[in-house]
Amino acid sequence: MQNDFRHKHHVVILGGGFGGLECCRALRHADVMITLIDRANHHLFQPLLYQVATAGLSAPEIAQPIRAILSRQKNVRVLLDEALSIDTEERRVALLESGPIHYDSLIVATGARTNYFGNDHWAAFAPGLKTLEDAQEIRHRVLLAFERAERERDAAAREALMRIVVVGGGPTGVELAGAFAELTKRVLARDFRNTDPARAQVVLLEVAPGILRGFPDALSAKASRQLEELGVDVRVGQKINDIRAGEIELADETLRAATIVWGAGVRAVPLAHDLPVEKDRTGRLKVAPDLSLPGYPEVFAIGDIAYVEDAAGKIVPGVSPAAMQMGRYVGQTIGARLKERKPPPPFRYFDKGSMATIGRSRAVAQVGPLRFSGFSAWLAWLFVHLVFLVGFRNKLAVMLQWFYSYVNFRRGARLITEPIEVDSDGSRAQRRKGRMAPTAPSLPPKTQPAEPVDVY
Q1: If I label 402, which of 53, 114, 183, 291 is the partner at 20 to 30 A Cα–Cα?
Q2: How many angstroms separate the CA atoms of 250 and 241, rounded?
Q3: Are strands 163-167 and 259-262 parallel, antiparallel or unpaired?
Q4: How far apart are CA 286 and CA 306, in angstroms?
Q5: Can you tell me the distance from the alpha carbon of 158 to that of 195, in angstroms, rounded to the nearest whole number?
Q6: Are 52 and 59 in contact (CB under 8 A)?
Q7: What separation in angstroms does the CA of 142 have from each of 55, 150, 162, 193, 409?
Q8: Please, how many CA atoms are within 13 Å of residue 239, restricted to the half-sphere of its CB?
């Protein structure tokens, strides 16, 4: 693709997440032309993905078309495409559909992907939670498993169909486990006759001695107690030997479960691998104090793909407020360079606190020196997430949906839909893809055990 903006400084932004959008906004009055490239046409509010996976919200309530968000910013164009590689010497990005595109400044904000710690084949049996498709797939598996349990006559098979295992005791795992417990024991329990979803088992596995390791020990302990009050079986100090269809092998036990969800870690996307800069153990790009790549001042990395130690010596966490602050900072830096002004001081992260929700009226939060849990933490979590949602319609829809669910323990997004495939002749056919929960998970013959994996 030829550069259509040769008469102006061309800023290319890879990724329409929190950091990419905030960088666009920071440059809205700058004399530049911006091309924002994303392989999805929507901005996704990832902190609420677990609500889609557990049937609390529907996809449109946590996503907004990128073009709609940026429609009033005239110096931006949006491309639905995927970046394949970056040539830092030629200042060029290779795109899957559009060919090469040249840049004067480049912002890499492509986020992260699920980390299976060298066991990527587990993804078929234990999906992660990074995209809307992931969330809908998990919801599909859970709901279909309970439908099959309703007609299953074998008690052991029925128990396996109603067991949900969540791997990883970080915020994502904790939020999923709490929401699954409420879904099974408070929502689905009303809807079935031949089986009792309230007897479903939700298991949370974590390799560390406690969950929510980024929180103080007291809040971690409170989170464990709140999960156990919901009926979640919290197991710490666990290592995963293997994951197969319908079962997960631990050091001393094999759990049969129709639904296994992986929430144990993230790593950089493949785009980062070939960039000629130092990386951390998960592949994140180690950036300079101004968030540029060392040796390439025109290339910046922000959000989950960047390893950042700010001016205070603090490692910046991979959370949405940090990505937004980085995006705003980079936009200001580019604007200052173009006007030949003094650049802003090295990036410094303003920590607004950490929160994790555990269920209805349950959460833990740390804001500065304040540490609190329970209903007050849940209200704070609710307020913060509504503030960050993009679009008034989304905020109103989520608020109404949550209020309805809070009062009635009802979840409206419980539809099971079949994926649509397109045949070679262009006709559409509705088919089962074979990705659903197994009818009756069974243990395979004993094989040589794999090396245990520490779950981070």
Answers
A1: 114
A2: 5
A3: parallel
A4: 6
A5: 8
A6: yes
A7: 10, 13, 8, 17, 18
A8: 9
| Alpha carbons 402 and 56: distance in angstroms, whole number | 8
Tokens 């992931």 found at: 134
Alpha carbon distance 11, 19 (integer Å): 14
Predicted local distance difference test score (pLDDT) of residue 450: 43
In terms of average pLDDT, the best of 6-10, 75-79, 378-382, 449-453 is 75-79
Give the CB-side neighbour count of residue 420, counting CA atoms within 13 A.
4
Question: How far is it, in rounded angstroms, from Cα 369 to Cα 258?
Answer: 42
Range 286-310 burial, b when 16+ CB lie within 10 A, else e: ebbebbbbeebeebbbbbbbbbbeb
How would DSSP label each residue in 356-415?
Answer: EEEETTEEEEEETTEEEETHHHHHHHHHHHHHHSSSHHHHHHHHHHHHHHHHH---S---
Radius of gyration of the chain (CA): 23
End-to-end CA distance of the chain: give it in Å, rounded: 41
The 8-class DSSP code of residue 209 comes to: S
> What domains are defined for the chain?
9-39+81-112+267-338 (3.50.50.60), 120-264+354-408 (3.50.50.100)
How many contiguous H segments (helices) and E segments (strands) does the chain have? 10, 27
One-letter amino acid of 350: F
Q: How far apart (Å, rounded) are the C-alpha atoms in residues 230 and 224? A: 10
pLDDT digits (tens, 9 = 90+) for 104-131: 999 999 999 999 999 999 999 999 999 9
In this structure, the strands spanning 63-65 and 42-44 are: antiparallel
Alpha helices in 129-198 (DSSP H): 132-151, 155-161, 171-182
Pairing relation of β-strands 292-293 and 296-301? antiparallel
Catalytic residues: 175
Biggest CA-to-CA distance, the chain: 75
- In angstroms, rounded to a whole number, what is the distance separating the alpha carbons of residues 114 and 91? 29
Burial (CB < 10 A; 0-12, 13-18, 19+), residue 101, is buried
